[in-house]
């Protein structure tokens, strides 16, 4: 009787379940005899069944729901499927489908995953953290749901993002799933639809702001330090004002970073480095015009400025090459409405309020779209870029696909096949005048898993900007000549585990060089890092 219960518990525990792959011997030893159909399957056969079932799902959101249920049922099988089909499944597990999943989270919800810390937990946050069953947590991704992808305030529905990002940590860099903890900081929402939705699962009140909000975040950070001293705290999809503020406040004290700011910056800088191999210029010869001056835009701007200073420019000279256009127009000195993070990029120039006119006037060599509004790189913009550049660099990074500044097809067509294009959401290859182009996806998943792995491997006390700079260089180095030949400025996503390993080594090197690592540098760092990587196989 008790053995039978034990056997059932095993099948119902996703971290230990092997389903039909339990061997004959295990079935006998673990009280599983009779609880499973007779045929003992190999994991390859289970994968085949999953892939067949996935193919029968009529759309992306149904595939997402199916995969989530698989993750809840058999974690090893879930990761086996994902690791082997990353390129195909990334758009389901992450942007764009995860965005839709968050929008509908209250309706498609089946089972909780991760921890919910709410504004009602003030004073007892540590108790909530103590309820997490795993003590050895190495990566936490936390959001307060205020700015989910390009979709705005989704409140507690934003939990899909930390869950999805941590699945990518495990799949892309082999961070063991048991080391990963998603946290939703539920402080309410301003989303009117959710405030009225009877199936909404979060706190159905307006957002906590000001001192009370800061006190709750402080309590969470202190609780994490105490309960999970080895964890990285990744800030994710916080609203604009909080994101910059929280990062500044904690990054010199705790092992934290903001992927929307620093991860995005790193992947975009890597894309620029690779693009320069195609255009033939140097970074210092570029003039970059950003469409959007939020977390992504300013984050990229700051890191590119750092890279330019590394090349020998003064900070002023570096910033002079970087221009921003936001919802009010060109970011210029005469404006009095600029938030602190935009001011260092405000130039002495006339205010231009139309993007196409700014492109004509400034003649940038690269435009980077990160405003989240969509369709801003019009035919006029692309033609103008192509008039003054032999190979214009066009990065349409806004997500989801509907918010992209232009499609891959538009970029290649309107530039006469000359644009070096990358996007935030995936686009299919394009054939233009007989030549096949494969657009690169500036996916943060190239960066944050590897950075996390490097920090874990070196037990670095902090996550520094220099690490993201090193990660950008390591990623750019992984784009091969065959990638560039088809216009792709990143390696294929299918090689992301190799990319993560390279990034992790570069990041760990920085930690050892700067004296923020714990312990001695292993003689064979690469082997040490590779040895930490989780492989989804049945033990
Ligand atoms: P954010 O809210 O911090 O910033 C948005 C910026 O766009 C603000 O500066 C705002 O003033 C500006 N803006 C809004 N409307 C505008 C308009 N009509 N014209 C010009 N500017 C306008 O958001 P964020 O975190 O910076 O993200 C922006 C976009 O970048 C999102 O779509 C997001 O999905 C995308 N993103 C992509 C990647 C990637 O591809 N790797 C990474 C991060 C973010």
List the defining traits of the structure above.
24 helices; binds nicotinamide-adenine-dinucleotide; alpha/beta; 47% helix; 7-stranded mixed beta sheet; 4 domains; 539 residues; Rossmann fold; 14 strands; Hemocyanin, N-terminal domain
Question: What does the model show?
Answer:
This protein is α/β, with parallel strands linked by helices and 539 residues long. The protein is 47% helix and 10% strand. It folds into four domains: 41 residues, Hemocyanin, N-terminal domain (Up-down Bundle); 158 residues, Rossmann fold, CATH 3.40.50.10380; 170 residues, Rossmann fold (3-Layer(aba) Sandwich); 79 residues, no CATH class. The chain has 24 helices and 14 strands. The strands form three sheets. A seven-stranded mixed sheet has the order 8-7-6-9-10-11-14, sandwiched between helices. A five-stranded parallel sheet has the order 1-3-2-4-5, sandwiched between helices. A two-stranded antiparallel sheet has the order 12-13. The protein starts with a helix and ends in a 7-residue tail after the last helix. The protein binds nicotinamide-adenine-dinucleotide. The site of nicotinamide-adenine-dinucleotide has 29 residues, from helix 14, helix 15 and strand 7.
């Amino acid at each position: 009787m008790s053995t039978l219960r034990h056997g059932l518990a095993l099948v119902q525990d996703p971290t230990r379940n092997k389903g039909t792959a339990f061997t004959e011997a295990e079935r006998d030893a673990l009280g599983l005899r009779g609880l499973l159909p007779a045929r003992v399957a190999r994991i390859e056969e289970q994968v085949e069944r999953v892939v067949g079932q996935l193919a029968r799902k009529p759309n992306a959101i149904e595939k997402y729901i199916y995969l989530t249920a698989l993750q809840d049922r058999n974690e090893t099988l879930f990761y086996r499927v994902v690791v082997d089909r990353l390129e195909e499944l990334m758009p389901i597990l992450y942007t764009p489908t995860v965005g839709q999943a968050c929008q509908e989270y209250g309706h498609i919800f089946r089972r909780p995953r991760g921890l919910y810390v709410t504004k009602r937990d003030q004073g007892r946050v540590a108790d909530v953290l103590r309820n997490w069953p795993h003590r050895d947590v190495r990566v936490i991704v936390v959001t307060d749901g205020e700015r989910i992808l390009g979709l705005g305030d989704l409140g507690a529905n934003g939990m899909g993002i930390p869950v999805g990002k941590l699945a990518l940590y495990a799949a892309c860099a082999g961070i063991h799933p048991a080391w990963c903890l998603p946290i939703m900081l539920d402080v309410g929402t301003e989303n009117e639809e959710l405030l009225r939705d009877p199936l909404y699962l979060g706190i159905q009140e307006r957002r906590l702001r000001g001192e009370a909000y800061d006190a709750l975040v402080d309590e969470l950070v202190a609780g994490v330090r105490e309960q999970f001293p080895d964890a990285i705290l990744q800030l994710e999809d916080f609203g604009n004002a909080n994101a910059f503020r929280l990062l500044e406040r904690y990054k010199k004290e705790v092992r934290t970073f903001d992927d929307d700011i620093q991860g995005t910056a790193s992947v975009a800088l890597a894309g620029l480095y690779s693009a320069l191999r195609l255009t033939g210029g140097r970074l210092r010869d570029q003039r970059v015009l950003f469409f959007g001056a939020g977390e992504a835009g300013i984050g990229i701007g700051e890191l590119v400025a750092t890279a330019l200073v590394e090349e020998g420019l003064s900070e002023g000279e570096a910033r002079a090459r970087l221009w921003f256009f936001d919802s009010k127009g060109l970011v210029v000195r005469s404006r009095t409405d600029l938030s602190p993070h935009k001011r260092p990029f405000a130039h002495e120039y006339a205010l231009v309020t139309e993007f196409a006119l700014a492109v004509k006037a400034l003649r940038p060599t690269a435009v980077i779209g990160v405003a989240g509004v969509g369709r801003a790189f019009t035919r006029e913009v692309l033609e103008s870029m192509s008039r003054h550049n032999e190979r214009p660099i066009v990065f349409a990074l806004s997500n989801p696909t509907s918010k992209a500044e232009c499609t891959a097809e538009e970029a290649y067509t309107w530039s006469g096949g000359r644009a070096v294009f990358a996007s935030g959401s995936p686009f299919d290859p394009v054939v233009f005048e007989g030549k096949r182009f494969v657009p690169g996806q500036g996916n943060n998943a190239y960066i944050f898993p590897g950075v996390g792995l490097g920090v874990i491997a070196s037990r670095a006390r902090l996550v520094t900007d220099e690490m993201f700079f090193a990660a950008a260089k390591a990623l750019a180095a992984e784009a091969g000549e065959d990638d560039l030949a088809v216009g792709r400025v990143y390696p294929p996503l299918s090689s992301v585990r190799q990319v993560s390993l390279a990034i992790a080594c570069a990041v760990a090197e920085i930690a050892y060089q700067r004296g923020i690592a714990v312990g001695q540098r292993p003689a064979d760092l690469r082997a040490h890092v590779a040895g930490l990587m989780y492989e989804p196989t049945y033990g």
